[in-house]
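Our consortium's second objective concerns turning raw sequence data into structural hypotheses that experimental partners can test. To show how far this objective has progressed, the report includes one record in full. It was chosen at random from the queue rather than selected for favorable results. The single chain below, 189 residues long, was entered without modification.
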Amino acid sequence: MQIATMQQFSLFDRFKKKEPKVQISDKKNISTLETLYAPVAGKVKPIIEVSDPVFSQRMMGDGFAVTPTANQIYSPINGKIISIFDTKHAIGIETTSGLEVLIHMGLDTVELNGKPFNVYVNVGDVVTPTTMIAEMDIKAVVEAKKETDVLIVVTNMDEVADVTLNADGLVVAETPVALVTMKELKNRK
């Protein structure tokens, strides 16, 4: 018999510190659902619609992108910062359940050597979807002839059973956008 519990999303959920999580159990195996939030205000699109084939073909993992309308970038999940690229264009976060998420700001922005980015977190910092982790100067990225999409990529897909996009169109930062189903504990490496 499977038992599922989940907090309902409401207008005020984005102000709560706790992440909606589901534990699905058949007494032997447990799967965890993690919620991914919009990291920035803008237009959500599936990762397969991103112009860079490394992302659109899911070579780095599955996820989604937001074409931003604001410069402020927030954590897409509750977790701990595990990496910050020297060029400031990408930040890695890991959750307590082991989900690894990459926030990648812009396409081909590694070539900008960090100039349009300010990062406000350090490796080891604990973050939530209300934590502003960085700013991306959209105007500077556009002037450099780069695309501004902010990508949220699940990078450890071998630990993941499914990524489901539950939002599209315009969103504000901290809006629940996707659910990630982690594999049952017995099926993880």
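The partners drew two points from this record. The CA atoms of residues 145 and 153 lie 23 Å apart. The first strand starts at residue 3 and ends at 5. Both points have been shared with the crystallography group to help prioritize constructs.
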